[in-house]
Design a protein that fits this description.
591 residues, alpha+beta, eight-stranded mixed beta sheet, 18 helices, 31% helix, globular
Length: 591
């Protein structure tokens, strides 16, 4: 009321905000780190310099391992509700334009009948196409609902660290002022130009800017050209398609069959083209091959193809994840998957260290386990670009020539000549070889960790009996992801993977393994116990678990919160309690 003075006491303004974990970046790595930490009850703050989450599709392929992570974190069904399902992803097409000649197809992303069987045997989940602008809200909304504090338009400027924590300086881009955030740990998930990684001095291998690309996001009803051959990717072999880019022109389906993204290359030495509306629409129409169809260009942007990876992911109390430590083209669809899995690997370790359950040495296993994976996927993604060249080579399309000559070369494959038959065979072989990009199931699931967080069991490594990039090899060896098998509990059917995770260790055993159950229950740390067998809490009606577990009924598997086997013993043991205690001491860095 006018003339009435308030007696309310003003609260003093603090210049330092405190939290356990500060996360810089709200992309797939940062958002999933926040979600996992909040799920585990760890206070965290996310800052992003941007005013919103991703507004373009960017990353999209979501593989089975990532879906397993999201399943454990309780958001799998939210992703499925928004994603394009697997059966609409897989007729990867090579053509002269969408309206032009088709040159061949690859059954992709687990849609080949034989590969599909391997997918169903490997995991309780299905891969899907979840564009980043839809994925980020699912992750961030769940994280905020569980306790994450999120700050948009807040730019990370610098950090210092000491024996007790990290002090980061940030700038409020709305007000223009700076302030400090004090955290026990800092996660840099700020993308391919990560300032956190730069400030932390993480050593990098490889190089940036090896080729130039542009993205063009547009709307158009392309159902007449695509619905009969449903796919996420349509590759266009047209004049200019081998300049820069990711191997060929690409029309990517964002939402069937009306929302799209084109990737087209440019000469990185000459610099990016002027991305006018007219230029963008000309590229769109070139790849569609239809001058009349209505097209609405939403946005265009230039970027570079990178081949760079961090040799270590942390220094002191600062950790980096996602594109900050593995920078590569979108080939194979590995980027957001690896980013989410980085954060999932790190989050449970931070939780146990912050709770005083584990020694900080446990955090050293993050780099040891994830850096080799990052290097592998950077190499694989860039190799996939190079593996597109034989398709052009089969059409004699790599040497300088006029567009008319390229079309003539493509037409020549239809002739009834020995040369044309040879050309057809070479083209089929070159297209079929792209399974290493579109069906690399082993790259998705065959990670084998070697670190202090894993206790070897002394058995020789059998290696891989089939191509480790193409085929998943289930194993219960320490360092491998727990094999999936369908088991039952009463009237429920569930995966062995559904019995693990949830932020705690799990011990799996069977009939005769009571010693392992008692040993687990005697530990100070929470260990869930799962006994599988006739008359046990869980049963193995198909016999799949018995075939996959690689230990006897009375043997034991100790599984980490991230679903990786940490310790294995083939049979019952008189000193089961001592073996479990010793294993945990080593895993938790206390030995």
């Amino acid at each position: 009321m006018p003339g009435v003075r308030s007696h309310r006491q003003e609260r003093p303004v603090s210049t330092v905000v405190e939290t356990d974990v500060l996360i810089v970046g709200s992309g797939p790595a940062g958002a999933s780190a926040a979600l996992a930490l909040s799920t585990y009850g760890v206070p965290n703050i996310v800052v992003t310099r941007y005013a919103s989450l991703a507004d373009t599709p960017r990353a999209h392929i979501t593989n089975q391992r990532t879906m397993e992570v999201l399943r454990d974190l309780g958001v799998e069904q939210d992703v499925i509700a928004h994603a394009t399902p697997q059966h609409l992803m897989g007729d990867t097409t090579f053509c002269t334009s969408l309206a032009g000649e088709e040159l061949g197809r690859v059954r992709s992303w687990g849609n080949d009948p034989l590969v599909q069987a391997e997918h169903e045997l490997a995991s309780p989940t299905r891969m899907c196409d979840m564009p980043q602008h839809l994925m980020e809200p699912v992750l961030v909304n769940a994280a905020v609902a569980r306790g994450t504090r999120l700050r948009f338009q807040t730019e990370y400027l610098s950090h210092t660290q000491d024996a007790d924590g990290v002090t980061a300086t940030v700038r409020d881009r709305l007000r223009g002022d700076t302030y400090e955030i004090r955290a026990r740990y800092l996660i840099g998930a700020d993308g391919g130009r990560s300032k956190v990684a730069e400030d932390a001095g993480l050593p990098m291998g490889g190089q940036m800017g090896v080729a130039g690309s542009i993205n063009i996001v547009f709307d158009a009803d392309l159902s007449r050209y695509t619905a009969h051959r449903p796919s996420t990717l349509y590759w266009v072999l047209a004049p200019g398609a081998t300049v820069g880019g990711i191997g060929a022109g690409l029309v990517r389906c964002v939402r069937p069959w009306n929302e799209w993204l084109i990737v087209w290359g440019y000469d990185v030495e000459a610099g990016a083209p002027d991305l006018t509306a007219e230029y963008a629409e000309s590229i769109v129409r070139k790849l569609i091959g239809d001058e009349e169809i209505p097209v609405t260009v939403r946005s265009s942007s230039a970027w570079t193809v990178n081949e760079m990876y961090a040799e270590t992911y942390s220094t002191g109390r600062v950790f980096c994840a996602g594109d900050a430590v593995h920078r590569h083209p979108p080939s194979n669809g590995l980027g957001s998957n690896t980013s989410i899995q980085d954060s999932y690997n790190l989050a449970w370790k931070l939780k146990l260290v912050l709770d005083g359950v584990a020694d900080p040495k446990l955090l050293e296993t993050y780099s040891a386990e994830r850096a080799p994976v990052g290097r592998q996927i950077v190499t694989r993604a860039n190799r996939s670009i190079r593996e597109t060249a034989p398709i052009f080579e089969a059409l004699d399309g790599l040497s300088p020539q006029t567009p008319e000559q390229l079309w003539a070369n493509i037409a020549a494959r239809k002739e009834a000549t020995d040369a044309a038959e040879t050309q057809r065979a070479a083209l089929r072989e070159a297209i079929a070889f792209k399974v290493y990009e579109f069906n690399a199931h082993g790259v998705d699931l065959n990670q084998r960790y070697v670190s202090g967080g894993i206790v070897p069991d002394g058995t020789p490594d059998p290696g891989f009996m089939r191509d480790p990039e193409l085929h998943h090899h289930p194993s219960s060896r320490p360092g491998a992801r727990l094999p999936h098998a369908w088991i039952t509990s009463g009237t429920r059917t569930l995966s062995t993977l559904d019995t693990v995770g949830k932020g705690r260790f799990t011990l799996l055993t069977g009939i005769g393994g009571e010693c392992w159950v008692r040993a687990a229950e005697a530990q100070a740390i929470e260990i869930a116990t799962v006994a599988v067998g006739p008359g046990q809490a869980y049963e193995d009606p198909y016999g799949d678990w018995a075939r996959l577990r690689e230990v006897s009924d009375a043997g034991a598997l100790l599984v980490r919160p991230d679903g990786f086997v940490a310790f294995r013993h083939a049979s019952a043991a008189e000193d089961a309690a001592g073996l479990i205690t010793d294993a945990l001491e080593r895993i938790l860095g206390r030995a």
